[in-house]
Amino acid sequence: MIFCKTISDLKSILKDKRASNSSIGFVPTMGALHQGHLSLIENARQKSDVVVCSIFVNPTQFNQASDLENYPKPIETDLQLLANIHCDIVFMPSVEEMYPDGFEKLNADKLGDITKLYEGSSRPGHFDGVYTVLMKLFDIVEPNMVFFVKKTTNNVCL
Question: Which of 28, 92, 94, 141 is the most exposed place for a label (fewest CB within 10 A)?
Answer without folding.
Answer: 94
